[in-house]
Design goal:
Helices cover 31% and strands 19% of the residues. It is of the alpha/beta class. Bound molecules: flavin-adenine dinucleotide (FAD).
Length: 431
Amino acid sequence: MNHQQTIETKSTDHYDVLVCGGGTAGSIAAIQAARAGAKTILIESGSQLGGTITTGGVSFPGLFHAHGRQIIRGIGWELIEAAVQLNDDHLQDFTKPYQHHPEHQIHVNPYIYALLCEEKCLEAGVHIRYYETPVNAMFDGTQWIVDVSGKGTSSRLFCHQLIDCTGNALLAQIAAYDVFHSEPCQPGSVMFKLAGYDISTLNMTLIRSEYQKALEDGVISQSMFYHDIATLLRISHHSSKAALAANHIHGADSTTSITHTAANLNGRHSLLRLLRFLRTFPGLEHTTLYSMAAETSIRETYRIHGLHVITADEYVNAIRYEDGICYAFYPLDLHDENGIRPEPLESGRVPSIPLRALIPDNSHHFLVAGRCVSSDQMANSALRVAAPCMAMGQAAGATAALASRHGINPLDIPIREIHSLLRQHDAILPV
Ligand SMILES: Cc1cc2nc3c(=O)[nH]c(=O)nc-3n(C[C@H](O)[C@H](O)[C@H](O)COP(=O)(O)OP(=O)(O)OC[C@H]3O[C@@H](n4cnc5c(N)ncnc54)[C@H](O)[C@@H]3O)c2cc1C
């Protein structure tokens, strides 16, 4: 009798920098580290780069401008410009003040963005490994030994610097560093577009009252980003440029395969119920799903407990830090059971992020970038958006490359050396 053999590939490799998570922050971190000369490996559990921007369907990153001037540029901006150009899109005039902050977000074609991330990683010399996750990480006094598991593979990797860009501080947790988790966390969302109806012919009064009744009777749950059904139908139509057709999935968490599976099942089930419900209305009988993101996108899970914890107070007062590595600009934007109430920043204020918020307390040769930056929940509701995640990714990549070059900890590099490398790669630094 033939027994199928378990396929197991043992490989051992040495790297200067290992980036875990090839999403919004991680792909930029890997490109920057490799461009700065570090031998870099990028471990991604999914099948493509870009993370929440691509696989999560949140393809409208922001904000790169504040009060009429650009505050985030560098590798993230290079990717945005390339994606805009390859899709024949046009950038807005950012000197014009906006009424609502989404007007300054940049809609990118997510498929093109994923392709460009991959191309720029490969051009920089990044070794990409899809479908893999770290399962163990140990610091032996001089380097990290990371066990990585994938589809039919297991490998042991040796590296000088780790960068956790999983969005969930998973690698930091594996390395036994402290993390924060707020209760409740913000909900996740499935991004989607609908088709098959003509918005101008709908009897909105009837639809509104029936929708309200169905909510009260519990036929459908209050889990929509837009509680007004008319807004939802307008925004979610595939011809609408606005891309915020989303539900709210409370408790959604992408940290492990088990929690992320649950988030996907809940998100898709909620969308299926909505679709069936909408098709009961006159004019909406032929509503269909035009597009749906491949997974439930996640706003918040775990954040590292860093050498500095950015507070909402520091954020809204735009405190400057001696080790500032990038700007961030977005209203405080906490989503909860009642929806959202964005709180815009006061005129002239542009917050920033210190390097210490990317370094877990009591850590060695370790950085994070992205939404798991060390911050309280309210500050994180603004810091988590795409443009600052990209800028943090670039700063972490540059710092890790320098730390590996000198064989020292990130905190021991003079900040002016990090700034100088970032400037060479077109980043904007807080002054
Ligand atoms: C519904 C929604 C709406 C939003 N709206 C906006 C908006 O309007 N504008 C804006 O700028 N931002 C918005 N954001 C926020 C922003 O998109 C994200 O916070 C940001 O993109 C997160 O970047 P990141 O790099 O931290 O994580 P991600 O981009 O999620 O990247 C994490 C990557 O790590 C990978 N990964 C995870 N675990 C592992 C593992 N164990 N091993 C290997 N790889 C792993 C993931 O597959 C993923 O590729 C929104 C977010 C959501 C969910």
